[in-house]
Amino acid sequence: MTSPAAPDPAALSPRLPSPLQELGDDRFARRGLRLLLKRDDLIHPELTGNKWRKLAPNLRAAAGRTVVTFGGAYSNHLRATAAAGRLLGVPTVGVVRGQELADRPLNPSLARCAADGMRLHFVDRSTYRRKAEPATLAAVLRAVGVPGAHVVPEGGSNVLAVHGCTALGAELGDRADVVAVACGTGGTLAGLAAGLPEGGRALGIPVLKGGFLDTAVQALQEEAFGARRGTWSLDDRFHFGGYARPAPELDAFAGDFAARHGVPVERLYVAKLLYGLLTLAEEGAFARGTTIAAVVTGRPFPS
Fold first, then answer.
1. Across the chain, where does the E strand assignment appear?
2. According to a count of CB atoms within 10 Å of the terminal CB, is the N or C end of the chain lower?
3. Tens digit of pLDDT for each residue in 35-61?
4. What pLDDT, on a 0 to 100 scale, did the predictor assign at position 1?
5. Tens of pLDDT, residues 267-303
6. What does the domain layout of the chain look like in residue ranges?
7. Cα–Cα distance measured from residue 191 to residue 166, given in angstroms and rounded to the nearest whole number
8. Domain boundaries 66-148, corresponding CATH code
9. Residues 6+ apart with CB under 8 A from 143
10. CATH architecture of the domain with range 14-46+157-295
């Protein structure tokens, strides 16, 4: 008796390659710069942007097994994983940072995960910090009752995801001199940089405080490819205090950018990316004649 075929994300008809849109923005144009948007937010209505690129190879590897993954209370990755589980009939468990959240009403982000069928398991912050340690991970899997699950790390960044994101660089080819992306855990930047042709440069804008991403991206590339790949760098000045922190200046910028160009601007990642690029342009960081592509990795929630 043969086993049923594993769900294939390709059955969800992703829009690949994602569109490349040029914007006429005088703030860039007067400095001799072209600004393109790589509209990964249009890949799929529910699995947008880098979440598709990172999750699709992991869902194939899961082969129908329960997917267990990790995130905070406002995690885009948890929402995308839950949506993928619903669409493909794959059981999902989200391990959420913050045991205290178990006794509170679910915020809209976690409520969406639960509505999509994800089982939420809350852990204290100390346990969460140790989630990658084999003993801690094994204890978590026992606690949720799925010791044979396919485990996807926080943010979806593992070797499978890095390889999945190389297609982003390949799709852009030589259309841009600099390709910029907002970074949470580094997997998208690691794959993007590896997928760009020779001469292409990738720029990461971290959305979290801490300055740890350089080491994380390097480690992901070494695990995926055996060595550092491509030309890439990080500028960690644009996190606005950390993930999901109130930032009126950033909100005002995002609202203005959306009004100028008719493009929805997601606040947790994309707004920081675009703000950073404009600041760098104003600082003269890019030579005249440079074409910059900004990767739009998601859309505002709820969409």
1. 20-23, 34-38, 67-71, 92-97, 119-123, 150-152, 178-183, 201-206, 231-234, 291-295
2. N
3. 999 999 999 998 877 899 999 999 999
4. 40
5. 999 999 999 999 999 999 999 999 999 999 999 876 4
6. 14-46+157-295, 66-148
7. 4
8. 3.40.50.1100
9. 121
10. 3-Layer(aba) Sandwich (3.40)
